[in-house]
Specification:
This protein is α/β, with parallel strands linked by helices. It has two domains: 6-131, Lysozyme-like (3-Layer(aba) Sandwich); 155-216, Muramoyl-pentapeptide Carboxypeptidase, domain 1. The protein is 27% helix and 13% strand. The strands form two sheets. Strands 1-5-4-7-3-8 form a six-stranded mixed beta sheet. It has a two-stranded antiparallel ribbon with strand order 2-6. It is elongated and about 50 Å long. It starts with 5 loop residues before the first strand and ends with a helix. 37% of the residues are buried.
Length: 217
């Protein structure tokens, strides 16, 4: 089914340098959808997205998918830093078969820029989205072992960091659970756990990471 689109062209775009293979979801964080669209079309703002989804379900197209919208900013996922070129950006006003985008590459802004962003937020219905056929969601039993947290070192921390890196996060394995690792784990939890996002890698967090890696292979 093709949904009707309302054209609201933005001048804030340039040429893609890659074929899009992921979708980045944002929330607008503004008083209204109208205000968000106005900003995304303002040449002085130098920001945009491909689509804006209003609370009533209306979909506005600001930038053609063939062009690079400016929505991701400084970001990283699976070794790629120019996320704007590699993605379709969708802004969702608060309270993907066309490009053959895989479920493991339906991401939040907080996944690709965890030190700067928390949107679309822990209340975003990632589970429901996955159940509708878009994205990944798993609920395995918790893994055994004590929780891992900031200040710890060892092979368990290294394995955690390696898994997060393999999934796509910018989390080079060092074996040291530093502040950056805490930030990455919190971003992971905000998307794939949602009941808490304290940056502590307990058994439930680790089990979901392992399950996602298996599901995404």
């Amino acid at each position: 089914m093709t949904l009707p689109l309302i054209e609201a062209p933005s001048p804030n775009f340039d040429a893609r340098k890659a074929v899009p293979d992921c979708v980045i979801l944002h929330y607008t964080g503004m008083e209204s959808g109208e205000a968000a669209i106005e900003r995304l079309r303002d040449p002085e703002a130098k920001v945009s997205s491909h689509y804006v989804v209003e609370e009533d379900g209306r979909i506005f197209r600001l930038v053609a998918e063939e062009r690079r919208a400016w929505h991701a900013g400084a970001a990283f996922w699976k070794g790629v830093k120019d996320i704007n070129s590699a993605s379709i950006g969708i802004e969702i006003v608060n309270p993907g078969t066309r490009w053959m985008i895989s479920d493991s590459r339906i991401l939040g802004h907080s996944d690709i820029a965890p030190a700067r962003k928390i949107d679309p937020g822990e209340l975003f219905p990632w589970k429901r989205l996955a159940e509708s056929g878009h994205g990944l969601w798993i609920e395995p039993p918790p893994s055994p072992g004590a929780p891992l947290g900031e200040g710890e070192e060892g092979t368990g921390v290294f394995a955690l960091q390696a898994g997060l890196t393999r999934l796509g996060y910018d989390c080079a394995p060092t074996g040291k659970y530093d502040a950056h690792t805490t930030t990455i784990v919190s971003a992971f939890q905000r998307h794939w756990l949602q009941t808490r996002f304290d940056g502590i890698a307990d058994g439930e967090t680790r089990a979901r990471l392992v399950g996602l890696l298996r599901a995404g292979d």
